[in-house]
Fold this sequence. Notes:
This protein is mainly α. The protein is built from 13 helices and no strands.
Amino acid sequence: MGTSKMSWDDAQKFDDCIITYMLYREGKTIEIIGRIRNISREKVEKDIIDAKIKLRTIQSDKNEKGLLDKVLELTKEERLRCIQEKPREELENFMEQIRKEYGSIKNPEDKAALIWLIGEIKDVSLIGLLSKDILHNNGNVRRMVCSALGKIGSEKALPILHKALSDDKPQVRQYAAKALRHIGNKASLHMLNEAIKKNHEKDYVKRAYLQSIENINLRLTK
């Protein structure tokens, strides 16, 4: 039974942990799932882990699980080691898998984990995928987009980061500013200088603006 074949029509046949995991795969947060199922956050997290183990066993037997699903089940350290140890040809295949399946990842926590992985891969060709989520309804996903774009370090990301400087979440604005430190241009400077004048801005965001302004000015005057 692959996750793509699970249907609510068959929900009465599923273990409780699978029902929790189906809600998670639909994009609902752990807090919302807890309220729907009337269980604690700890129980939701345990259900998700138990469901992944159960489905991993089933799909391993049927050889149905995709590489991307497998990678998302790893810890952060394991994901990093996975991409660092892959030969270039295997990494290219993995990136193609990301391009094909990126849009199917609905849960914001899984999406944020995948975006983090894209940032570690540092491939400019994946910037187009990230641009789609700079308007994601989850602030942490938008923050991770900015972080990943900063790691990739390409000027192709400038329009996306400039847009993020106007985000309604201060951490997204902060990460957008940090990402601009090494790739920002004159337009970035103008936007950062305007943003820092806003009285309502958080101090930690203003510090990110100032550092980026300083770094960009140094690069442009060399």
